[in-house]
Amino acid sequence: MSAILTIAEAARLIAAKKLSPVELAKAHLDRIRRLDPDLNAFLLVTEDRALADAKAAEARQMSGALRGKLDGIPIAHKDIYNTAGIRTTAHSKLLEHNVPTRDAHTVKKWADAGTVMLGKLATHEFAFGGPSFDLPWPPARNPWNRDHFTAGSSSGTGAAVAAGLILGGTGSDTGGSIRGPAALCGIAGIKPTYGLSSRAGILPLAFSLDHAGPMAWTAEDCALLLQGMAGPDPEDPASVDRPIPDFTAELGKGVKGLRIGVVRHFFEQDHRASDATRAGIDAAMDFFRKEGAEVRDITLSPAADYHAVGYLIMVTEAFTLHGPWMRERFMDYGELFRDRVSLAATVSGPDMIQATRRRHMLCREMAAAIENLDIIVSASQPGEAPRIDSVPKWANMEKPSFTMPFNVTGFPAISICTGFGEGGLPVAMQLAGKPFTEPTLFRAAHAYETATKWRARRPAMAG
Amino acid sequence: MSTPPIDEAELKAMLVRAGLTLTPDQVRAILPGAEIFRRMIERVNAPLPREAEPALTFDVEQG
Question: Could you give the domains of chain A?
């Protein structure tokens, strides 16, 4: 087995009994053995578990009892997702030997769907604070160029998917932690609507901003993975009890008739993105227009307004969780995490109330802006991945993020690859929608991906 | 209205109030970030129009 399959391709072959889940798992375990020493995407490889899962999937395949399109698919989990009996560390010394007794809700759902779990993936410490070189494990490296950053915090998932070590994996997103690594690693990643997928059993960073979502090579694969994650869970107070749509239902419908608003000032004035990033978005908008979508520019509050509100709430909520440990074990955290979260000490009660009020206003603003639209477009990241050894300590504060606005509002947003920059590394755009309109995001993203050549190109090291 | 830059003594006092008793080196390591963060807090506190007053409400059903 040489070509790296998508989940959709593998599912078709498994359903047709033309692909053995056991052989597929062995091929991916072999890729991990060969490639991961240079990537550090995995914190733990669970080979025995993977082979047991694959054998069970193969038995179902042979008996005509497959559970669906995720049955037999090799995946791995970001190491903030609790896995029963399997070490879950948050990439931190504080949880170096932590072994949960229960699976996270979404881990169980994917297991019930028949996925084959290959292991646990690198993250920024407690999903905030990388790249760090003072933790028990090194940071993940970007498969497009191992001297470069993956972004984070779902860094291992981004690297592992891009290098074809797994076909899909879990991420979490509090300010962009799914969409950032998806963008810099040249894959797809969706932050679903707040409440669509449960966070129960996932180590939290900031209650009101945390989202759980999937990352994969294509938007179609993300749709398949989200199908296996979404759904109500009484153990997550934010979980929404509503019917779960077929996330693949609109794939193949094209973009004709879709109304698309481009928040151009985010990536041209507020935080100017690279030439390649802007050119990629312009080319994508030309494509959408040509295919019959209505595209126009829209104006929101400055990206810095969304960023300030989101960041203030994020570090304050994080300190609420981590304060007790930070008071006792400050130096057991990595420098980036402890220094960034310590900033919460400078937030007053009225500051936090004011941030919450601002958040309501920004939510209303975005809801009004998208009322007569289907999709809002922005950049995902300002450009290609920087060198991993040149990311400033305060980088995620100095300029406004393009992803944070959709954590502040809870609206769904997906990042997809739009080409490559001067350094040969991927660039990306972000498509956001109204709450619970993920099928429309997948529709537009899939139309773009299947009409362009970017999904045919893998990192050279992936072979 | 712009607030003055945060200094080391002020930051240290804030950290102590939050229960973080740090060494001078540890406080100095946070100081540049605290200055950036101060500007973010200032942005969040920009005056709101009177009509924004009811923005923060209590949901009697959701709590």
Answer: 7-303+353-462 (3.90.1300.10)
